[in-house]
């Protein structure tokens, strides 16, 4: 390119050249290790994350409230969920939601036509503090891949509850009494609830009971991580 042509180049042209050159040298950083990454995670962290995957994610699918969980809450999966929730890295939900959806499709679980997905909601106060609901982001990606219908506002959390961590089983249930109300959804659709972590199931049972009291069938709950299970 001649000097005259360079002088005539528009600002947009210079920006395009700048982006092209920067793309050759700069990559995004992995939010789990800060190494360069082609996607949301570097190859090493993605490999380590997949080691957390359960061999049988549907082993609790025959429980009173069926549970489908992708991985064990430990190792890099525990770290990834913490970074997603508390370090403002919402893009991690795409990685985790993809893994959960692919495991769901591979499982061969049968479900009624028209099944919808409802993410476990945050109370408005916590939503404002965090800026997003991690379960909502996971559900969005899960539905993109699985083809299930997303009901983002199917449930609302109308009572701010204590953190469940550290509470006894009875205290967990009491803490969630009347915490949810049914929002906007197709009433004759069976529902798969979706959350980031499944521990004792108190939150999932409370949400399921709220739906069932309105005559809505609950298929079960999907979670990216299973905690506190032997």
What this model shows, in words?
The chain is an alpha/beta fold and 230 residues long. It has a single domain (52-226), classed as Rossmann fold (3-Layer(aba) Sandwich), CATH 3.40.50. The chain has 9 helices and 9 strands. It has a 5-stranded parallel sheet with strand order 3-9-8-4-5. Strands 1-2 form a two-stranded antiparallel sheet. Helix 3 (43-50) packs across helix 4 and helix 5 crosses helix 7 (134-146). The longest helix has 16 residues, at 92-107. The chain starts with a helix and ends with a strand. Mean pLDDT is 85; it is low at 14-24 and 170-175.
CATH class: Alpha Beta
Number of helices: 9
The SS-based structural class is alpha/beta
Task: Please count the beta strands (DSSP E, at least 2 residues each).
Answer: 9
Mean pLDDT: 85
Strand content: 15-25%
Write out the strand line-up for the largest beta sheet, numbering strands in chain order: 3-9-8-4-5
- Percentage of helical residues? 40-55%
The Cα radius of gyration reads 21 Å
| Order of SSEs | HHEEHEHHEHHEEHEEHE
Task: Summarize the SSE layout with pairings.
Layout (H helix, E strand, L loop, with lengths): L2 H6 L2 H15 L2 E2 L6 E2 L5 H8 L16 E6 L2 H12 L5 H16 L8 E4 L4 H7 L3 H13 L2 E2 L4 E3 L11 H7 L4 E3 L8 E8 L3 H11 L5 E9 L4
Parallel strand pairs: 3-9, 4-5, 4-8, 8-9
Antiparallel strand pairs: 1-2, 6-7
List keywords for this structure.
single chain; 230 residues; alpha/beta; Rossmann fold; five-stranded parallel β-sheet; two-stranded antiparallel ribbon; 9 strands; globular
Summarize the structure.
The chain is α/β, with parallel strands linked by helices and 230 residues long. Helix content is 41%, strand content 17%. It has one domain: Rossmann fold (3-Layer(aba) Sandwich), CATH 3.40.50.
